[in-house]
Amino acid sequence: MFTFPQGQRVAHFAAALTVALSSTHVLAFKAQVRDQNGAPIEDAVVYAVPIDGRLPHTRPAPAMIMQKNKMFMPLVTVVQKGASVDFPNHDDIGHDVYSFSDPQRFELKIYRGASHPVVFDKTGVEVIGCNIHDTMIAYLLVVDTPYFAKTGHDGTATLPDLPRGSYRVLAWNYRQHDLDARSEQTIQTPAAMPVTFSLQLDPR
Ligand SMILES: [Cu+2]
Q: Which residues are close to ligand 1, an ion, with C-beta < 5 A?
């Protein structure tokens, strides 16, 4: 019988590659977040917490919530617990940024330009305001995972690199009547996607 030594080597290489991929494979995870009427929700947060509690040993990514034209931008921010957040003020007037929310109360006394960073060590929802301008509001969701994303106009969120495994996947939005409510599902990846979440929103 004739054999192809070259081909055999290729086959062995391919088999090794398959094993390597399956053990470390990361997948894009897509979720769709809708309200009680089936309408897509923009600026919802979707995050995945590994069931086995194992998180990568990476530093939580810092974030920035700026002030411009007497508004916070972005309106919704999500960070991993332990992240540092800057609040730069790009207006010519001073702002006094604060939160009375339970996870972490803080106040940045009236300032312009750069702010002192604030480190958020507890999970939960932070409602952020300005003591001078009552209409200014922002939401910061602090989660215990680096795997999170916000939804766009179409209500879809993509977690670009979720390692294969089992997760509690949670969805949240600031327009819920109960600000601390979550919609939750247990997901084993790879899963049929998108995974759909439904949230009960207050009327606008
Ligand atoms: Cu202000």
A: 95, 130, 132-133
